[in-house]
Structure to design on (61 residues):
């Protein structure tokens, strides 16, 4: 699983820590709008577009 995080980080240019935090929140059932508005401290301030890209890349892998 961490390999996917590294791959997504390399593709997107987003630090792996932010990728891991975002995927963890998505895995718990949080929605993209909720994460981008209310969990900025957990994701390092990622916006909806970046979160959607992370989700899409993870789903592909």
């Amino acid at each position: 699983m961490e390999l996917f995080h590294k791959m997504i980080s390399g593709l997107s240019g987003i630090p792996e820590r932010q990728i891991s935090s975002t995927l963890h929140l998505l895995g718990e059932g949080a929605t993209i709008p909720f994460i981008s508005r209310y969990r900025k401290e957990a994701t390092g301030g990622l916006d909806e577009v970046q979160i959607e890209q992370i989700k899409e890349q993870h789903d592909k892998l």
